[in-house]
Amino acid sequence: MKKVLITGANKSIGFETARQLLQQGYFVYLGSRSVERGNLAVEKLKSEGFTNVEFIQLDVNDSTSVKAARLALGKKTEVLDVLINNAGVNGGMPQEALSATIEQLQNVFNTNLYGVVRVTQAFIDLMRKSEQPRIVNVSSSGCSLTLHSDPTWKYYDHKSAVYAPSKAAMNMYTIALAYELKDTNFKVNAVCPGFVATDFNGHRGTGTVQEAGTRIVKYTTIGEDGPTGKFFSEEYNPETGECPW
User: Fold this and answer.
1) Phi, psi (5° rounding) for residue 69?
2) What is the percent of the chain where pLDDT is above 70?
3) Is residue 35 part of a domain?
4) For labelling alongside 148, which of 64, 140, 192, 222 has CA 20 to 30 A away?
5) 29 Cβ partners below 8 Å, 6+ apart?
6) Is residue 243, in this structure, part of any structural domain at all?
7) How many structural domains are present in the chain?
């Protein structure tokens, strides 16, 4: 049975991704900053008939919490097959280039970039023991430099000077990570779940959490011939899924 850790999985897209992976027979470690919300999420999944799920307290913003989570998980399993870096924040609005504060940027980068780095580095030793390790970094087509430079793109006027830069930086980390692991069995990709209506974006969006979960799961379960070091947005490109950086 393959084992997966999902950060920020107590609600919305992370929670739905956990549900879909449980349906496919994975053992899910449900990461959540809040102990109360994490336990409630696990209880809900168990009430739906899933038994292979456990809560892991994990605050990606806090190095001490990440290290404690690694120790806790290490007592439960010697191998981690999948890491889904899903936890993220949008930083609030407005996000204009001339008014965004350094504190605002630091807070968002701390979660969306540094959090991914903290968690990946902490759990990589357990993943190296997997036969087919997979890392999915949840990204956004809204951080594509190419698309934001194209006046014909439908979201061209929706600029963000805080959230988008943090995810663009995470994308570059994804490229570097995939390169470092290119001679191994790892597959490392950035995946946009789509413009989904959740509390993350004020319930604005055109997609559902079910669609978002399916997109993430697709790149979680790729085989040996699957891609690595790529950026995917099936909402942007339904044919190949690839999104420009």
Assistant:
1) -65, -40
2) 96
3) yes
4) 222
5) 3, 4, 5, 6, 53, 54, 55, 56, 73, 76
6) no
7) 1
Q: What's the domain range around 72? A: 3-233
Are 192 and 174 in contact, with CB atoms under 8 Å apart? Answer: no
Q: Which residues of 64-74 are buried (b: 16+ CB within 10 A; e: fewer)?
A: eebebbbeebe
Active site residues: 163, 167
pLDDT digits (tens, 9 = 90+) for 28-49: 999 999 999 999 999 999 999 9
65 membership: H or E segment, kind and range: helix 63-74
The model's pLDDT over 63-122, given as tens digits with 9 standing for 90+, comes to 999 999 999 999 999 999 999 999 999 999 999 999 999 999 999 999 999 999 999 999
Sheet of 3-6: strand order equals: 53-57, 27-32, 3-6, 82-85, 134-138, 187-192, 230-233
In this prediction, residue 205 carries a pLDDT of 56
Q: Please report where in the chains the tokens 């049975």 appear, as a residue.
A: 1
What backbone phi and psi angles, to 5 degrees, belong to 191? -130, 125
